[in-house]
Amino acid sequence: MEPLLTVDAISMIFGGLRAVDSLSMNVMLGEIHSLIGPNGAGKTTVLNVISGFYKPTEGKVLFDNKLIQGSNSSTISRAGLARTFQNVRLFKELTVLENVQIGMYALVKEGIIGTVFHTPYFRKVNKASVEECMALLEMVGLKDKASLRARNMSYGQQKVLEIARALAQKPKLLLLDEPAAGLNDTETFELIKLVRQLQGKGITVLLIEHNMRLVMNLSDRITVLNFGKKIAEGNPDVIQNNEEVIQAYLGKRRAYA
Amino acid sequence: MIQLLISGLAMGSIYALVALGIVVIANAVNVVNFAQGENVMLGAYVAATLTLTLHLPILAAYAISIILLALYGYIFQKVAYYPLRKKPFITVVVATIGVSMFLKNAARIVWGPQPIYFAGPFGESMIRVGGVSINAQNILIIVVTLALVVFQHFFFAKTSLGRQMQATAQDQEAATLMGIKVSRMIAFTFIYSSMLAAAAGVLLAPIFYVSADMGANLGLKAFAASIIGGFGSVPGAILGGLFLGVLEIFAAAYVSSLYKDAFAFIVLILILAFMPRGLFGEKISTKV
Q1: Which residues in chain B are contacts of A85 at CB distance < 8 A?
Q2: What is the ipTM of this complex?
């Protein structure tokens, strides 16, 4: 297996705080990789560095064999990296379908003339993209909600809509920031199925999550952060039995999955 | 009575166009553009110069004026917005006030202090409908404004460019992550807003002399109209503009034309005091 994403000794310093301290990790092509750790360990900071919101103070990020650290987020997203947010950030005044379409726009080259005057070429491309978006909505179970405004969706629906929007970008790597937070048990179960389905389609997933049942159930590999440093890495069995991880984060021994 | 209503609606349409230009930018980048009135003046002067000095056909002059203002909108955001985009709200607002003063004084130098009369495509002709004669220009203003409003609705709701601009207005960071070129969308928003200003300028010119001072009052009234309608709301800006236009004309006709402007601002104060969300702010809060 080859790495799709390589994080090479990145540090992120905010004022005097080392939020991330020379972290290195590889996300392999096709795997579901989780990043876990206590609150404030620097997980979301890592995601923000990868997706281009922050330029790391030190270190390199390679995606698909290209250096991306410090690149503009929109360039990174066009390279095939999509993400969701810990606090849902949909375009709330647009409809469910439009939110997903937005994810696809960067891929569709239709030109200004086409978008304003609806040339036959535009109509053809547009029809195909609407069908693709509807297929994505069906996959996350929101097909019948397509024409409703995003802000009228329940929290759980908004979370999966965000995933559908990210998928519309046809990503190679999908970053999910706490996708299960705020979901009930049924929704969490559906989410596990969905992420497995994505892996089946060849999408690599990097996941931040506090729901250990989901993490242990889904992950091929897990990286554990504490105070910005990597304290352990390995498959779920290794992580669950690592003394340092248990002390810092997992607490008393118990079986997940 | 009908004549008054029509001229009120015509003036209101102009306020609505200017208010739309202000609201579209406010929603996209959270800046109140106090130069919008001067942008209208610029559009009117450009069209007047093209017709009166260069003797171009009037419709060609309109089109060129709108195109030049589009270019101006791009430069405006590059100069007055882009370098300040990370600064606090008030910094950018002051920059737009600076641009408005610059434009007003530059216009005075270039075109002189004398107001210019610039007739519309119909000159002074009147349309007679059932014993009432109506200024043809007023009808033109109302019709064109209506068409622009329909176009804008279609543009933002149905085209991918419009939706990307909406997405940018709603959440810039998330839009960036969708691969949307946010700074380009913001530039488009300023360009669109300046084109609206040019349209308002050429429409207004025949019923208002073209002068360096025409923009100041207009920008302020349009801002008031957008607040009366509910700031940030597109339907609110349109309805607020129409309401203000009609109110002014009736106040001028039945009370006193001297206090015409005062009425606009009295209503603004009353709305701010008793309905701070504006007349239509709560119910229809669609952005862009």
Answers
A1: 174
A2: 0.73
